[in-house]
Design brief:
Elements: E1 2-6, H1 11-22, E2 26-31, H2 34-48, E3 53-56, H3 57-63, E4 66-69, H4 76-87, E5 91-94, H5 115-122, E6 128-131, H6 138-141, E7 151-156, H7 159-170, E8 175-178, H8 185-202
Parallel strand pairs: 1-2, 1-4, 2-3, 4-5, 5-6, 7-8
Antiparallel strand pairs: 6-7
Helix pairs in contact: 3-4, 4-5
This protein binds NADP nicotinamide-adenine-dinucleotide phosphate.
Length: about 220
């Protein structure tokens, strides 16, 4: 699949882009600056022995069948508004956690209750927004030898879009779990500060969650 990563030059973008490229996807690393997108794509490609394209965020969206936005919450609204016209009816994955530094270990509910619900409001009605990957550390994503033992909760109002994202998540070496409607992003985004607390308390790197009780047949 053609995947465009908006803000793909950063920590999550690097890990996601490289893992998806390794799995055979056609990945485009987007940036606010075209030159930076090109340079970072070349840097990641060389470092991990994969093929990546790069350019600006608009080009990443135009290139993509599926768009994923990986920017800090402080850049969330501006970034979504800058790509709104390129999105059309594509699936857009928002991984944003609305952290409020320096209190990143304490739940912060933004005005719209969740970053993903706010993103829904920034896009045209056709866009199929999915929220996921809030609990997957960039350190683990960027380590090709790291085998995950945690799950990814995936929510969104379009069932087919959720299924598409769950399938892509399996290509990262993770199990995606259907977590229902987009409103449930409030719960998903709220869990990250808890995991950040756990990391500090237990000196863990990238603690995660595992859902039990799902039948093997699923
Ligand atoms: N890091 C993690 O382990 C982790 C885990 C789960 C979820 N998340 C979530 O994933 C998102 C990305 O995290 P990250 O650690 O990858 O972020 P990051 O590395 O700090 O930033 C990602 C990219 O966002 C762009 N950006 C930064 N500031 C911006 C601004 N003011 N305006 C527009 N674009 C800006 C930059 O791209 P350009 O300069 O190239 O435009 C940057 O490379 C966050 O919302 C975070 O909550 C992170």
């Amino acid at each position: 699949m053609k995947i465009g990563i908006v803000g793909g030059t950063g920590r999550e973008g690097r890990g996601l882009g490289v893992r998806w490229a390794k799995a055979g996807h056609d990945v485009f690393i987007g940036s606010r600056q075209s030159d930076k997108g090109v340079a970072k794509a070349a840097e990641f490609a060389k470092e991990f022995g994969v093929t990546l394209q790069g350019g600006d965020n608009v080009a990443a969206c135009n290139h993509a069948e599926l768009i994923i936005v990986t920017v800090p919450y402080s850049a969330h609204q501006g970034t979504f508004e800058s790509i709104k016209d390129q999105v059309g009816d594509k699936v857009v994955v928002d991984i944003t956690v609305p952290l409020q530094p320096p209190k990143v270990r304490s739940v912060h509910l933004p005005k719209g209750e969740a970053a993903a619900l706010e993103a829904r409001g920034y896009l045209n009605d056709d866009a199929r927004l999915v929220a996921a990957l809030h609990h997957i550390s960039s350190e683990h994503l960027s380590d090709p030898d790291h085998a995950f033992d945690c799950d990814v909760l995936v929510c969104g109002d379009d069932k087919d879009a959720r299924a598409t994202v769950i399938s892509l998540i399996s290509d990262l070496g993770l199990r995606g779990v259907d977590a229902g409607v987009l409103k449930n992003a409030v719960a998903l985004e709220s869990l990250t500060p808890v995991l950040l607390h756990i990391n500090r308390r237990y000196k863990s790197v990238g603690s995660g969650i595992r859902i039990t009780g799902i039948p093997e047949s699923e």
